[in-house]
Amino acid sequence: MIDNGIGMQRWVSEVALVCPVCNEVISKEIDVPEPDYSAEKSRDMTVGGELVIECDGCGDVFDADVWAGPAHCDITLREHENVNVSCSPPGYDRPPEDWDEYWGTPEHPGEIFNANYDQLHKIIDTQATADGASLMNRMIFAQIITFLEAYFCDNLITGLQKHKDCLLRFASKDGAIQNDPIPAVEVLKDPEIVFKKIVRNLKEGRLYHNFGKQTDPASKSKPKLEGVPLWYRHAFDFPLTPSEDILDELGG
Q1: Which of 2, 18, 124, 160 could form a disulfide with 128 if both were Cys (CB 3.0 to 4.6 A apart)?
Q2: Cα 172 to the center of its chain, rounded Å
Q3: Among candidates 76, 77, 74, 152, which has minimal Cα distance to 110?
């Protein structure tokens, strides 16, 4: 069976066929394997898998083999190989602008990051260039930043959700949260409205590559916390960035 793993995006194809048992038309969206983007050539990106197609008319189910690539999908029913299965070019099940509305926050952001990290290493090994001049190198660098931003955002939200004391501390110290008034009637209607608004603010109103402005090494003034280090300090009361002593030790 196809296993979408710990990620939340679905790679799907619209399939249509005539049921070999009741002759009713089966038309539905099916999860298919996501292409292997670490392959050097597009023809090698095709990934095979197994799936089950159920007929809503008679209730029969059919085991099938599937092969899906970046722009094609082929499905064959194992016990009815002569049945023609029409497949649309695969793609994500909803446009990116709608993902936030449907997706929850992953329970283990670190696992998501590690899985992405491993996949990225495969792409680096097969497609990056040593001189760093290729378009692929720049795309890989941008993807690394995206993975880190997603991790910092998801980890912050998950930590606040699991630890009420951290949530209370964050809500009392974060200026954007303090300045977001919530009518009493909304709280009465939905006891979770406060946390939902905090999550929406954390997902939509912040830049998770913001680690503050670069400080002048000659300046004796203590650098002001901004962005991700500040939000993590407010939430979990620990420094996300290394202290000057640690930096001096690493540099020495």
Answers
A1: 124
A2: 29
A3: 152
This model's pTM is above 0.85:
no
Say how far apart CA 228 and CA 213 lie, in whole Å.
12
Instruction: Name which of 143, 111, 139, 121 is nearest 209 in CA terms.
Output: 143
Q: Which of 58, 48, 74 is nearest to 18 (CA)?
A: 58
Q: CA–CA separation, 252 vs 248, rounded Å?
A: 6
Nearest of 120, 29, 37 to residue 71 by alpha carbon? 37
Residue 2 pLDDT: 41
**Cβ(182)–Cβ(194) below 8 Å:** yes
Report the b/e string of 74-91 with b at 16+ CB within 10 A: ebebeeeeebebebeebe
Of the CA atoms within 13 Å of residue 59, those in its CB half-sphere come to 0
Q: How far apart are CA 15 and CA 21, in angstroms?
A: 17
Report the pLDDT value the prediction gives residue 141, as an integer from 0 to 100: 79
228 vs 145: CA distance, rounded Å = 13
C-alpha count within 13 angstroms, C-beta hemisphere, residue 127: 20
Low-confidence ranges of the chain (pLDDT < 50): 1-7, 96-102
Q: 14 forms bridges with which residues in the sheet?
A: 29
What is the reported pLDDT for 218?
63
Question: What does the alpha-carbon distance between residue 43 and residue 244 come to, in Å, rounded to a whole number?
Answer: 51
Cα 106 from Cα 167, distance rounded (Å): 18
